[in-house]
Amino acid sequence: MKVRVKYFASIREALGAGETVEMAPGATVGDLRDRLLAASPAHAQALARGRALRCALDQAMCDEKAALREDAEVAFFPPVTGG
């Protein structure tokens, strides 16, 4: 299934506005993060497990256990962002 990923604040500066990722059925937001961590050194640094990071699934805050669906939108951003 295809998932749209958006990045905000410092993550956007490191990785760009976003991308589309192909995920297996039954995948979670955590699985997506793991996949992105392995995508490149820039992804590994921007989305590192030790880094404070918030996520949203279809514009609702979620944790990494949230299940993905076809054409879902997942956003990653630092805990505090400016406007």
From TrEMBL:
Q: Which domain of life is it from?
A: Bacteria
Note whether Signal occurs among the keywords: no
What InterPro entries has UniProt attached to this entry?
Beta-grasp_dom_sf (IPR012675), MOCS2A (IPR044672), Mopterin_synth/thiamin_S_b (IPR016155), ThiS/MoaD-like (IPR003749)
Keywords linked to the UniProt accession: Nucleotide-binding
Entry's family note: Belongs to the MoaD family.
Q: Which PANTHER family does the record match to this protein?
A: MOLYBDOPTERIN SYNTHASE SULFUR CARRIER SUBUNIT
For this entry, the protein name equals: Molybdopterin synthase sulfur carrier subunit
The taxonomy runs:
Bacteria, Pseudomonadati, Pseudomonadota, Betaproteobacteria, Burkholderiales
